Amino acid sequence: MHPRTAQWRRLFADEAGSERPDLALLCLLIGTEADPSLDTTDLDMTRRLLDRLAAQVAQAVSARGTGAAEDPRSWALAVAELLGQRYGFKGGPGVYQRLESSLLHEVLRRRRGLPILLSVLWMEVARRAGAPVHGVALPGHFVVGFGGEGGGDDQVLADAFSGGRVLSATDAALLVAAATGAPLVPSMLRPAGTLDIVRRILNNVRAWAAPRPERSEVSLWAIDLSLLLPAPNARLHYERAELLVQRGDYLRGARELDTYADAVAAEDAATADRARRQAHGARAMLN
């Protein structure tokens, strides 16, 4: 573990447990796991860049005239014109095959990323500029909402992955149908919470690493961060144990299996017993 990692993880846990977690900071702290060379100066520079982009968006909205700041569509178009058109932030070929597509500092550098990371960029710039903005976790495709939340009449959806294209109701329904084969329902348009967004990003990191056993350390740190979020799923302890055992760290893997067994024993004694037997087997590998 890099000397700064423990410090970053304490900050991540503290921020995740705060009353109003800072989405940009949490995303940047995820980046420190992938790139241990990042330091406080790098994080500060990245946040200042977000501030500068926000100032340009605010200026563009102001130039649109009286009432533009109260118009969600004006905000959506202003952010799209700046980030999508002028600076070229959008999706592209191969983004799903790159870990960098899930790291905010790399998305800012490469101007390419997954839908959820580009949406985070849109949201953080727009929020700093004063826009009423939120994330919308459509099944299979994350987008940005401006204005009314939860599908209200004044809610405007924008697809950051396509450069900020404003979506009609039909566009949004087609995105959902393509991902699930089911119709869009109003509950899908509710704002995504900050911690839900962070969990989804970490799940994407784990999905990237899963078919790459040579990058098991990425799966491990993604699980470690997920466990630092409030109310983590106990199953994460089991998945962490599996990774540790696969990496030859039998003792820590056994301890993690015991932790998982303790967490599920009250509700599922059979599963807890199996986990304890696996822990015994892992310890036997040390002999």
Automatic annotation (TrEMBL):
<dbReference type="Pfam" id="PF13369">
    <property type="entry name" value="Transglut_core2"/>
</dbReference>
<protein>
    <recommendedName>
        <fullName>Protein SirB1 N-terminal domain-containing protein</fullName>
    </recommendedName>
</protein>
<dbReference type="InterPro" id="IPR032698">
    <property type="entry name" value="SirB1_N"/>
</dbReference>
<feature type="domain" description="Protein SirB1 N-terminal">
    <location>
        <begin position="47"/>
        <end position="203"/>
    </location>
</feature>
<comment type="similarity">
    <text>Belongs to the UPF0162 family.</text>
</comment>
